[in-house]
């Protein structure tokens, strides 16, 4: 039977919570856990990535100043406590003492300063994380274990951003001496597990850090295997060679196979991940907003959710889940109306049989099936759609950012901050990596205006405007918010399925 684990409390700002959050675990015992992940991120540097699959591994290697667990609460990480100064334009962090990086290097305020100056400097400009942290104007060391982040303007989402991705603290001496390329492939952090080996496209192996500040892990080893083919991942789970298969690997159609195996179970968690087919708004027929609206009207999303996704998802109207700050329950979907779609296409001068290409991730079997159904819906209104699958790293690192897609392209987004800003700024602001086609002054101003606001009600109002404006311009065909579906061997104990897929496995054991 499918198990739903919710625990979805709202993230809160935790000021002066000195050392209360993460209790020490017992010394680790011999034991190995093997995890199947569908994608090799290609680099383990926190500033190089936007990928959920990076975080599924790297949450065990790196720590941030703050931490957010499966309950979505913000608690102390490498900072024991923090306080707001200067009306929110300065955050002062008191750091944990006695913490060391895996190479023996001391963690201190200098490491924090190095991390954020690197992120906001020339090196960070090469990756996708920098724009999430540009509210930071400077980093000031007060003493070895006190550091201030001076902000250009208050940033209401910064404490959450410090808990993941680009905000992970890195070792200055190691990177300076060994170089950036070495760090990409041989990561060093302060986390519960230490990197031991990495074979691109094959696996990454970690071992327990017995000196971890939160207590030694209960497992001695972790191995993440990169298994792109869902059927292979499920077969390895059934054979006992994999203990956990993480999202978005498992197709809906394979859930009964796992549920029928007495050794296995499914954990299904409502999460932030949303899927859409975004439009090339610059070229071809989809440059015309009438055509984009027609395409949305041509697709029956409710039927897709119920028949293909077996209810393991919910329809979306804007490119965010209902858990996202900025979600507007009053925003109305463009209705399924094939006759209306035909009328709009005729008004736009689109002739019957006009071709259109849909680009998707080749290893996403669920989206492959969904795209086939969408192709059928489009054929009913006179559009001939072809589906072009790409290897995930190719579509995410080359095809989309370089503006080389077809008329429509798959965008899967985790929205890991549970704040619409994190998604909307990346998708809609001019010049961003995930927005290769669209430039809109009104949208840019809306996005920029909400970032410094500490008034939650005013921020929420503007974010709702962003969602409504994106829907009005039909920037994407919004599809669904999927549950995070984990397949797990019952011999694994102590695992709590995180809605954001950020696995921290120091408290897990394997019988």
TrEMBL record:
CDD domains: PBP2_NikA_DppA_OppA_like. It is found in: Periplasm. PANTHER family: OLIGOPEPTIDE-BINDING PROTEIN APPA (PTHR30290:SF9), PERIPLASMIC BINDING COMPONENT OF ABC TRANSPORTER (PTHR30290). Keywords: Signal, Transport. Residues 73-433 form the Solute-binding protein family domain. Belongs to the bacterial solute-binding protein 5 family. Residues 1-29 form the signal peptide. The lineage of its organism: Bacteria, Pseudomonadati, Pseudomonadota, Alphaproteobacteria, Hyphomicrobiales. Pfam families: SBP_bac_5 (PF00496). InterPro entries: Peptide/Ni-bd (IPR030678), SBP_5 (IPR039424), SBP_5_dom (IPR000914). This is Peptide/nickel transport system substrate-binding protein.
